[in-house]
Amino acid sequence: MIHFPKDFIWGTATSAYQIEGAAQTDGKGLSIWDDFSATAGKTKNGDTGKIACDHYHRFKEDIALMKAAGIKVYRFSISWPRILPTGIGAINPAGLQFYSDLIDELLRNDITPWVTLYHWDLPLALEEEFGGWLSPKIIYAFKNYANICFEYFGDRVKHWITINEAWVVATLGYGQGVFAPGKVSNDSLYLAGHHLLLAHAEAVESYRNKFQVKQQGKIGMSNNCDWREPKTDAQADKDAAQRSLEFFLAWFADPIYKGDYPEIMKQNLGDRLPKFTPEQQGKLKGSSDFFGLNHYTTMFAEASKGNSKEQEVYGNGGILEDQQVHLSVDNNWEKTAMGWAIVPWGCEKLLLWIKDRYDNPPIFITENGCAFDDVLQDGQVADTNRIAFFEGYLSCCKQAIAAGANLQGYFIWSFMDNFEWAEGYTKRFGIYHVDFETQKRTPKNSAKWYSMVISNNGF
Ligand code: PNW
Question: What's the predicted TM-score (pTM) here?
Answer without folding.
Answer: 0.97
